[in-house]
């Protein structure tokens, strides 16, 4: 199934943000849940392998936008073949974007690809979080591939692809985590910080924090501790 | 293939690679590498992440890519300051010997202390090698140095370590092929370069860099 979401945040009269475009088709609906915030709501089971979702977010200068989701997404295998489900988030930010969806759970046999491409103008602020759990309780892990590319003021700031789960070439014992959390922030600089299975790395005017382990709630706490 | 490739991938080429362990020193300290099979797993992780990225960058640099842009892409794929410094240190070392070994105007287009894979691509081009050769050298070097470091740190049997490295040949070839196929399929555009990363290696590198008692530079 094809899913398309588009939200545009614009600086309106008096400096408050207005959302002139809030559009969704396919498996996601968008609900306005505040003056400058939206929640993505899954309207169907899944995603299933072969599903393709694109979420386009535009935050114009002087505007702010918070994007949340109402529940974890459970990626399930394709009914036939082994096609991955794909979700692309394409963000153009001149204002401030805060993207914190609920976790993605990848069921056994599923492969979910998550891509975030953020193009930032000078002075833009971005916070983007990702939480992943491979396999539901008592289930074998699924596979997740996540790519993040952040370009700030025309320069590539961060471009990484992480592969988790069976079949991912670098997902090897003894470090083959089921749970994963990562936050990338641009807007305020921070230096290196290390923890147990957690690390924060500096970016120009920002940072990226990552944590991994067996249980998602612990991993999320570890990521917050180095954020 | 020409003998220039053998020279480029030779650990005796004095480019400064021998002072780096590619994360092995910290992996040994953390108990992650302690025997041949844990070393093989570590090398495979490294090959398929930073090795794949290096192969892609080296192939693109050899193929006439914009070197400053590729160097910026290398930065974006290497957020760890310790790994950035290690890569630039080895890049500078390679430029020093490469300029003498394969004189060419190509060297002048490089930024001052380039990332190692970008310098490696230029060295390959200056030595009349192909992009596939550059990728193969990058992929091989991503495991050969760390393997030698593990041998020294753990006093492992050199024959065993040589066998571990040799058995990775199919994976090394696959990484080099993928680096060049990206180019053939029109994905040589910069965002299409491999970006595979292993945050474990970032964490090990940063913990290692903060140590006072380390034997290797990285």
Automatic annotation (TrEMBL), chain A:
<dbReference type="GO" id="GO:0016151">
    <property type="term" value="F:nickel cation binding"/>
</dbReference>
<protein>
    <submittedName>
        <fullName>Urease accessory protein</fullName>
    </submittedName>
</protein>
<dbReference type="InterPro" id="IPR002669">
    <property type="entry name" value="UreD"/>
</dbReference>
<keyword id="KW-0143">Chaperone</keyword>
<dbReference type="Pfam" id="PF01774">
    <property type="entry name" value="UreD"/>
</dbReference>
TrEMBL record, chain B:
<comment type="function">
    <text>Required for maturation of urease via the functional incorporation of the urease nickel metallocenter.</text>
</comment>
<dbReference type="GO" id="GO:0016151">
    <property type="term" value="F:nickel cation binding"/>
</dbReference>
<dbReference type="InterPro" id="IPR038277">
    <property type="entry name" value="UreF_sf"/>
</dbReference>
<keyword id="KW-0143">Chaperone</keyword>
<keyword id="KW-0963">Cytoplasm</keyword>
<dbReference type="InterPro" id="IPR002639">
    <property type="entry name" value="UreF"/>
</dbReference>
<dbReference type="GO" id="GO:0005737">
    <property type="term" value="C:cytoplasm"/>
</dbReference>
<keyword id="KW-0996">Nickel insertion</keyword>
<comment type="similarity">
    <text>Belongs to the UreF family.</text>
</comment>
<protein>
    <recommendedName>
        <fullName>Urease accessory protein UreF</fullName>
    </recommendedName>
</protein>
<comment type="subunit">
    <text>UreD, UreF and UreG form a complex that acts as a GTP-hydrolysis-dependent molecular chaperone, activating the urease apoprotein by helping to assemble the nickel containing metallocenter of UreC. The UreE protein probably delivers the nickel.</text>
</comment>
<dbReference type="Pfam" id="PF01730">
    <property type="entry name" value="UreF"/>
</dbReference>
């Amino acid at each position: 199934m094809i899913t398309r979401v588009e939200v545009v945040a614009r600086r309106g009269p008096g400096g408050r943000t207005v959302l002139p475009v809030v559009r969704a088709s396919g498996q996601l609906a968008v609900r306005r849940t505040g003056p400058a915030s939206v929640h993505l709501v899954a309207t169907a089971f899944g995603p299933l392998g072969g599903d393709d979702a694109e979420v386009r977010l535009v935050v114009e200068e002087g505007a702010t936008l918070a994007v949340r989701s109402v529940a974890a997404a459970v990626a399930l295998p394709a009914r036939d073949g082994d096609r991955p489900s794909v979700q692309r988030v394409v963000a153009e930010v001149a204002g401030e974007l805060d993207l914190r969806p609920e976790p993605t759970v990848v069921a056994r046999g599923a492969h979910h690809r998550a891509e975030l491409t953020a193009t930032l103008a000078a002075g833009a602020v971005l916070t983007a979080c990702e939480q992943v759990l491979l396999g539901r309780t008592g289930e074998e892990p699924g596979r997740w591939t996540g790519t993040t590319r952040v370009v700030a003021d025309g320069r590539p700031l961060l471009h990484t692809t992480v592969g988790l789960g069976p079949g991912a070439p670098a997902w090897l014992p003894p470090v083959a985590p089921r749970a994963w959390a990562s936050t990338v922030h641009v807007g305020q600089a921070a230096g290196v910080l290390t923890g147990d299975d957690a690390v924060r790395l500096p970016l120009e005017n920002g940072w990226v924090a990552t944590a991994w382990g067996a249980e998602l709630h612990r991993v999320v706490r570890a990521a917050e501790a180095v954020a | 293939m020409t003998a220039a490739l053998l020279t480029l991938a030779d650990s005796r080429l004095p480019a400064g690679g021998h002072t780096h362990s590619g994360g092995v020193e910290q992996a040994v300290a953390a108990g992650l590498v302690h025997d041949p099979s844990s070393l093989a797993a570590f090398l495979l992780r490294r090959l398929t992440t930073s090795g794949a990225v290096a192969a892609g960058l080296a192939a693109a640099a050899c193929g006439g890519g914009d070197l400053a842009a590729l160097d910026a892409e290398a930065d974006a794929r290497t957020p760890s300051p310790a790994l950035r410094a290690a890569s630039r240190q080895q890049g500078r070392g390679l430029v020093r010997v490469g300029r003498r070994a394969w004189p060419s105007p190509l060297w002048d287009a490089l930024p001052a202390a380039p990332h190692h894979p970008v310098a490696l691509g230029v060295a390959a081009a200056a030595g009349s090698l192909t992009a596939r050769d550059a990728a193969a050298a990058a992929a091989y070097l991503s495991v050969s140095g760390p393997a030698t470091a593990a041998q020294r740190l753990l006093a492992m049997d050199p024959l065993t370590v040589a066998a571990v490295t040799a058995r990775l040949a199919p994976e090394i070839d696959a990484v080099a092929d993928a680096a060049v196929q990206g180019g053939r399929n029109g994905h040589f555009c910069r965002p299409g370069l491999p970006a595979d990363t292993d945050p474990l290696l970032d964490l090990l590198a940063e913990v290692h860099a903060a140590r006072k008692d380390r034997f290797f530079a990285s």
